[in-house]
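REVIEWER CHECKLIST
Item 1: Sequence provided? yes
Item 2: Single chain? yes
Item 3: Sequence as submitted:
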Amino acid sequence: MTTPTALDMATVLDRYRAELRDLTDIELERRATTVAALPGRLAAGMRRLVDAEREYRQAVRRPVPPTRPRQECEGD
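Item 4: Structure as written out by the authors:
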């Protein structure tokens, strides 16, 4: 059974994750700096969420190289 504290922490982290999506890149970096200095389990969860949001944004911006079609063998 989960404790009320665990449920409260999950709720806080869910809200925090939702807020991160609306931040600009600069605001996200400021938030990362802020939570990096905080101690505790809640702060660790917040740091993971900030890192995940950063990675997501980088993956979305990363260009996908076009795939080259296979060339048919000319001798066949």
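Item 5: Key structural point noted by reviewer: The radius of gyration is 20 Å.
Item 6: Recommendation: ____
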